[in-house]
Amino acid sequence: MNKLSAVKLALFGSVMALASSGASAAELNLYTTREPGLIKPLLDAFTAKSDVKVNTVFMKDGLTERVASEGESSPADILMTVDFGNLIDLTEKGLTQPVESKVLDAAVPENLRDAGNNWFALSTRARVLYAAKDLDLSAFNYEDLADPRWKGKVCIRSGQHPYNTALFADYIAHHGAEATEKWLTGVKDNLARTAGGGDRDVAKDILGGICDIGIANSYYVGLMRSGKGGEDQVAWGNAIKVILPTFKDGGTQVNISGAAVAKHAPNKEQAVQLLEYLVSDEAQKLYAEANFEYPVKAGASIDPIIASFGELKVDPVPLTEIAGYRKEASELAEKVGFDN
Amino acid sequence: MTDTVLQRFSFIQAAHRKVGRLWLFMAVVIALLVLTPILALAWEALHGSSDLWPHLFAFVLPTALTQTLTLLLGVGILVILIGTGSAWLVTAYDFPGRSTLEWALLLPLAVPTYIIAYAYLDILHPIGVVQGAIRAVLGYSSPREFRLPDIRSMTGCIVLLGFVLYPYVYITTRAMFLTQAANLIEAARTLGTTRSRIFWRVALPLARPAIAVGVSLALMEALNDIGASEFLGVKTLTVSVYTTWITRSDLPGAAQIALAMLFLVIALIVIERWARRRQRYSLTAQRNRSFTPRKLGGFAGWMAFCSGFVPVFIGFVAPAAYLAIEAWKRFHMAGLSRQLVSEASNTIIMSAVATAIVLVFGIAVAYAMRLRPGRFSGVAYRLSTVGYAAPGTVIAIGILIPVAALDQFIDRNAMSWFGFSTGLLLIGSGAALIYAYTVRFLAISAGAAEAGFSRIPISFDQAARSLGQDATGTFRNVHLPLSKTALAAAGLLVFVDCMKELPATLLLRPLNFETLATHLYGEAARGTYEEASIAALAIVLIGTLPVIVLAGVGRQKA
């Protein structure tokens, strides 16, 4: 046992030596569910400008649980994630703190941040329609997805993915649970293949002749067409045209990426500094150009590929209201066997 | 004189009993370490309401259970067929290329399920190479005119998982054919039994425990899988756990489903053991001779090689070649990522450290059961293997809760006693990650150690003990040398598994710490697989090295 623990200690020691890096002047710890490839350019630019080093850990599921379990000892300063539901969850679980910043207040529209200033949207994206290029179609309502006209022609990712859950929840906000269940059943009947995969697969499958239309996020079109995802994806992106669908009595459903300062942030000052940088003109331009997202700041430029979809008319239902219907939306999707 | 000898003897016996107790104590501690995350989950589950169950029973479980059982049944049948068939092929027959096949059949182990899923999704997609070629031959110009059925289906998932998971059965079954079965097979042969009869009447029944071990490892991998089923649209129970946790932010509910699943798995294991309860597989101390394989030449030899090569091709060659091509394209476009080297070294170091610990722990648990067969050690042994059966992410959460609590406790006390903050000692150092790997993969080393020890007649222990060795000495001089190969094989399996592990690695690693698997996931999660192809190829290649070593180890023995 002694020998064993000695060995273990030695091993842990070497791992620790590996894991810990030299301390620099100012640092900041970021827990993120946004993929490193997406945010690295932004963080590098921030470090170059502010001389604050950003340590990151990219997670997918369990960011909330990790911060909660680490409690007061948590090194996390900023929690960055996509989907307003996640941000609202973090706030409701008491893992964030309010931030008073004139810069943030001025840059982020009121409907895209927490009423108590716990979280702020940094970019938005729309849930749009990908349609086969040669299809005679120029306008679309989300309601039409259940139209029998599209039987065997629709592709979409899992009905339990947060992007779809948010869309279904928005549908409930517009039409109520009963109508939503009916609609989901209709959409399910129209599916060309099992709901699954990712948003880009919709474009790929349209090119592959599996389906004619599908629902996916706006920025993927930019990532595909720009050639950032390789040659193959240019072909996928060019096989489709994009229509900004709307609810019959509303606009296009949008979701956000955003961030919050952690409750026990050891470097709050730097954390606010990063948030403020992320809504600066420079960073918002990067969001638009590198990631093809819609900037949150009014007047910030939009990438030409995204601008070519036409003007985005954002659905007016408040995000907090949609968030309240998420659980119901997820259960309805299960009830109609959306993914089966 | 006789008196003093007796006195001395009983003194030694007492000392030896102490050593024996120490082993048992270690086994119990290890079992508790593995049990802690499960208890944390149970605690979490208790916090939830039982509200979700009516909904689950009505709308989720019927499909999820059917899909899960279909998947397990399908994968189970497939891995038994491929694993046992290929093991028998390379053991009972000699043909050109056999020695290559012997190790090549292990290669699919190096390919994680999520990688094989996305590789085949691309290869077999209507716009991929295979269907493109078919269209060109048949003269169609667009996939709208002609395409094959979609691979995103239950059948697709079963086939893909079957072809990467069969090596678990191959490895255990082949070892059985080569060692203990060999004597009896030789005996059957001298009695004039035909080869196919030997397979059905002697080899297969003898290999049953080995097949059972291999299949249960493969099935637990299949049950755990989330990556491949996400790609292929199969909705297993594991997916329900995810949905409940992630989409509905209901961790207690997810913990409840996960625990129910765990019970299901344990029940299956118990049933399997119960079915074998009347069988005893005892062995003689007689040296095992491997039996002489039958020579196949000409066309028969060719056919033998081809049929043995099919699983290697589907499970390894095709996806690896695809990755190599994609990685090459990527390399041309963007060059090599600077982080790749550090990611690879992180991967290797973490996996190696974890493997060492997993091996030591596995040996301790299995040896304690041999020293002190009884309820205590038996329960400790079984408990220590449950971590393999639970979904990776759920186990990761189960580890996160107690480890983070301990971290906070240490931090707080360091602060109040010494006035400085230790930060998160266990998570920050990577120790939490090593712990997670240990919990996840202890089943492999404990199982292998138990199987290895069971081949050693108990009379060897008695002989060593009567020659004055204590339990530890007996282990060092008898068990370790005799089960070296089995343990080495287990170590390599664990290493490869740690390398491929994703969910716990994502959740529990320190800041700025990337491994090949997390890099790959980071790219795959946003759909930029091409960028991940280099990391994916690196995982497969690094995973291939231990597999080749593993083959060498097996051959030495043969």
TrEMBL record, chain A:
GO cellular component terms, semicolon-separated: outer membrane-bounded periplasmic space
CDD domains cross-referenced by the UniProt entry: PBP2_FutA1_ilke
Keyword presence, Cell cycle: no
Residues given in the record as Fe cation binding sites: Y219, Y220
Keyword flag Metal-binding: yes
Pfam families assigned: SBP_bac_6 (PF13343)
InterPro entries: Ferric-bd
Gene3D superfamilies, per database record: Periplasmic binding protein-like II
Domain of life: Bacteria
SUPFAM superfamilies: Periplasmic binding protein-like II (SSF53850)
Family: Belongs to the bacterial solute-binding protein 1 family.
Name of this protein: Iron ABC transporter substrate-binding protein
Annotated source species: Paramesorhizobium deserti
